[in-house]
Amino acid sequence: MTDSTPSLPPPVAVVLLAGGRGARAGFEQPKQMERLGGKAVLRWSLDSLAAHPAVSGGVLVANDDVMTAVGPLPVGWISADPGAERQQSVRSALAALAGWADDALVLVHDSARPGVGIDVVDRLLAALRTADAAIPVLPVPDTLVKANGGEAGDVVDRSLLARVQTPQAFRLGLLRRAHADAAGGAATDDAQLVRRLGATVATVPGDPRLHKLTYAADMAILSGLLGVGMMTRTAVGLGYDVHRLVAGKPLWIGGIEIAHSHGLEGHSDADVALHALTDAILGALADGDIGDHFPPTDARWRGAASHQFLRFAADRVAERGGRIDHVDLTIIAEAPKIGPHRGAIRARISEILAIPLERVSVKATTTERLGFTGRREGIAAQAAATVQLPEN
Ligand code: MG
Predict the structure, then answer these.
(1) Is the distance from CB of 6 to CB of 99 less than 8 angstroms?
(2) What distance in angstroms lies between residue 270's CA and the mean position of ligand 1's atoms?
(3) Which of 100, 252, 362, 372 could form a disulfide with 346 if both were Cys (CB 3.0 to 4.6 A apart)?
């Protein structure tokens, strides 16, 4: 209104690139859709860039399947179709930003780098007060040599080198000109295109959390850098089992043999306690029950020692990348007395599951001579298993 009106800072737009298929990572879905700490890798940078107070909108460049999976876009954000190459995807985003003035600022970011902090964006925007382009860089900590056909070649002076990250920040008009001029030549990032126009690209300190997801092993690195555990889901499973007592059979309970006039009848060794425990662990995995995995119709399991079933369930937890936190077992029997054997049963279960003794609870009770257990017709067992599983 008057000459004394302070000039507003230019608006900031984001171009978030999520069009890649991530073939090198070996994931079944585009790598930017892998789950990290309960949300998609792509969502991490989308949420933090959209939440930055200087950012007023953005373009997410992604295929329709990714757009559907990622959920609603933040206010002020639109989508654009990716091209076959990165450069075409940026051009597609620039077309979607046609309504923005040349003096706006734009942050171009690769969605495979989920760890965008507010600080690095602040540093980039501060650099654009005097420069037309700015990129985050990190020093190279390793010794570098020329790769020389299986032999180490000459050392390269690492003090002359830097690792380039994204987001990269530009005056929108400059980025538009760089892409218009670059119709022919390819580049792996936008700063290179801008430099071809003769513009100066400032560097600001990067952030180790901007580590790029390239290979499957990078997921564990990113979990550590972002402080999100890969184990984020607790599951509790319950198990219950009953077997009939018959005269003249060995009695197996909790993986040990107990001297008694009667034993339990069943297809396997009929270890009622290990069966309940196996079902509890399978229950935590939502992975069916003991009968699904070891059908009584299969002759292989006739008279089988039940520690194999329990070990199988524990292995299923490990295969999922999970961990058994705790098991709690109650044996319901009138006779024999279980109390004197509790310590041995506990030790045996700890051994079969390969978890510490203090994570194994074994209890016993009678039913006051009531019901089938009270009449000594059978023995029952119930169990709970608490399991930690990766969130995905
Ligand atoms: Mg059974």
Answers:
(1) no
(2) 6
(3) 362
